[in-house]
Design a protein that fits this description.
Blueprint: E1 6-9, E2 12-15, E3 18-20, E4 22-23, E5 29-30, E6 40-41, E7 43-52, E8 65-66, E9 71-74, E10 85-87, E11 94-96, E12 106-110, E13 126-129, E14 141-143, H1 145-152, E15 160-163
């Protein structure tokens, strides 16, 4: 492991020597991820992007991209743009990124099934804000908003999310 790695286990998240509570998928941890299973995939995941709500916060880093009300994430395995950012209107099933709640105010996008995605192997594994402490996600890793912001301001190109 690298010093800049974010490490997640059932015990929580560890980054730069700081321990933080986090949530994982309602389906637990898995080595066999599939779309809709609610599980968080084990492994080493690169951070390929940072998205944020510019109407709710300032950019945590110059590389972050603002989310617009038209931004969606395709989670429909029939979609030629499966597991990628798309714009509304979009003819396939998608998850809205510009939400009324705050869980997607800041998103670290992971490379799970991202480059050349295999349909049905799962989409949209993010690091994002939790709904409430330890409340399970649909497969993402979630944590307190201040912890997420602290991490987003410190990661670099070498940082990875390691799920044990």
């Amino acid at each position: 492991m690298r010093p800049t790695d974010i490490v997640v286990s059932k015990a929580g998240l560890l980054y730069l020597g700081r321990r933080m509570p986090c949530s994982i998928g309602r389906g637990g941890l898995t080595d066999q991820k599939s779309e809709g299973d609610g599980a968080t995939p084990r492994g080493c995941h690169a951070i390929v992007g940072i998205l944020f709500r510019a109407d709710r916060m300032r950019s945590p880093t110059p590389k972050a991209r603002p989310i617009s009300f038209r931004d969606l994430w395709s989670d429909d395995s029939r979609d030629p743009h499966y597991n990628s950012l798309v714009k509304a209107p979009h003819p396939f099933q998608c998850e809205r990124l510009y939400r009324g709640d705050r869980i997607y105010d800041l998103i670290l996008v992971l490379d799970w099934n991202y480059f050349d995605p295999i349909k049905g192997d799962g989409s949209a594994i993010f690091l994002h804000q939790w709904r409430r402490p330890r409340y399970p996600t649909a497969g993402c890793v979630a944590l307190r908003s201040d912890h997420l912001l602290w991490i987003a301001r410190r990661i670099n190109e070498a940082s990875r999310l390691i799920v044990l």
